[in-house]
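sanity check this chain:
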Amino acid sequence: MEPSEEFVFKHKGFYFQPDLVTPEYIDSLEDFEIRDSDVFIVTYPKSGTVWTQNILSLIYHEGHRDGTENMEIKYRVPWLEYNINNMDYVHRPSPRLFTTHLPYYLVPRDLRNRRAKVIYVARNPKDVAVSYFHFSKLSVILETIPDFNIFLERFLAGKVASSSWLDHVRGWSTHREEFNILFLTYEEMKKDLKGAVLKICKFLGKQLNEKELDTVVENATFDKMKTDPRANYDSMKSNLQERGKGHFLRKGIIGDWKNTMTVAQSERFDNVFKEKMKDLSSTFSWDINDDI
């Protein structure tokens, strides 16, 4: 079952959303000028993107930490390829913070100068698949596939927006030496949020005092984010949630895939994962067979 052209188009081996971007704009990003102070969050969808956006905003902006500024994170840490708010990225003051789902080979060429920083966040792909499935039922810019088994086969084949999780993680991992990159997992952030924030701060060269650090951690918890209009995308209900009631941030837990996948589906997933990733070095702190 092929994806509907109403919801995705393929360009240079990667599926994009036609309502949000054009092939010409994607091509223009190759020459996008990178500053040494730029910071890029890179994720596959539903892997902790909004969470990491919120953390970066809290680290860099005192007004976010103390509540004196009411700016949403989609403006603080905007999307590189999906500039839906028509922001002037060229004249944006440094340090510029960006978010992207792009594969390694489509990011700006100058990002390989190894001076600008990349934070790659990965999540157990079973949880990603289930979260993606539920989100597609809410978002009008994603194709709704009511049968999870059909969605799972699409997901494993990379026939969804942002293509294959397996290829995305594999690509960034095997080409990590080309970038100044920090790899994190959703799972380690859930298990030790303060430790993850400290790791991010060290990578960025940002020093926060104990009070500032505690404020970042407190405001970066899932429950706090879900009720903070600045820290989630619920304000975009008009073009994200017209299909039904729900929140952009759903559960935010580890292991929710067990509530959706059958044993057969889990085994099918494991077999594809092992074959595709068999020669990949252990970059991430979880294993597909972990009871998470």
The first strand starts at residue 9 and ends at 11.
